[in-house]
Q: What sequence folds into this?
C-alpha cells in the first residue's frame, strides 16, 4: 500500500472516529433529558435510602405531595419492593414503562401486603388490586396480578395507605 493510500485510510478512520465520539457525547449529554419521555411531566432525582440506585419523584397522593421511589428500568422493575420491609421516607414505588404494557406483578420476596394501581400515561386509573405476600412460596407458586387493560405506570403502596384515583405530579 502506498504512503498516500495509508494517509487516506488514516484520515478516513480519524473522521469516522470523530463522528463516533460526537454521537457518544450527544447521547451522554442527553441522558439527563431522558425524563422527557416520562408521563405526567414527572421530574426525577436520585433516591435516598433504602433505595440506592433508584430515582424518586413526587406525586399527589390523596391530596398530599408524597415521595415515591421510581423503578424505570427492567432490572429495577424486576426488583421492585422485594426485600424492602421499611420504605423509609417513601409512600410507595412507581413503576414506569417506556410504553403501554400488560406486564404482570408477583409478590415473591415481598413480606407485607400491598395495593397496586395501574395507570394510563395521562395518569387515569385503569385498574387496581390488593396483593398478598407469598413469603413461603417460590416465585412459580405466587399469584400473578395483572391489569385487565394495558397501562404505562403502576403504583405499589402499603395496603390501606392510599386510594389513588389518578396520578399527578406535584
A:
Amino acid at each position: 500500500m502506498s504512503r498516500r493510500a495509508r494517509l487516506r485510510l488514516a484520515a478516513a478512520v480519524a473522521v469516522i472516529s470523530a463522528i463516533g465520539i460526537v454521537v457518544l457525547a450527544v447521547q451522554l449529554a442527553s441522558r439527563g433529558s431522558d425524563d422527557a419521555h416520562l408521563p405526567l411531566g414527572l421530574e426525577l432525582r436520585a433516591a435516598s435510602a433504602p433505595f440506592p440506585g433508584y430515582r424518586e419523584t413526587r406525586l399527589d397522593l390523596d391530596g398530599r405531595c408524597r415521595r415515591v421511589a421510581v423503578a424505570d428500568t427492567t432490572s429495577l422493575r424486576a426488583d421492585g419492593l422485594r426485600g424492602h420491609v421499611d420504605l423509609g421516607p417513601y409512600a410507595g414505588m412507581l413503576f414506569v414503562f417506556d410504553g403501554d404494557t400488560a406486564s404482570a406483578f408477583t409478590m415473591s420476596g415481598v413480606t407485607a401486603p400491598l395495593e397496586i394501581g395501574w395507570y394510563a400515561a395521562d395518569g387515569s386509573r385503569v385498574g387496581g388490586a390488593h396483593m398478598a405476600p407469598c413469603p413461603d412460596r417460590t416465585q412459580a407458586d405466587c399469584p400473578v396480578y395483572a391489569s385487565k387493560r394495558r397501562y404505562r405506570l403502576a403504583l405499589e403502596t402499603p395496603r390501606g395507605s392510599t386510594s389513588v384515583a389518578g396520578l399527578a405530579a406535584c
User: Anything to note?
Assistant: The chain has two domains: 3-34, 38-158. The chain is about 20% helix and 30% strand. The domain at 38-158 is CATH 2.60.120.1140 (Jelly Rolls).
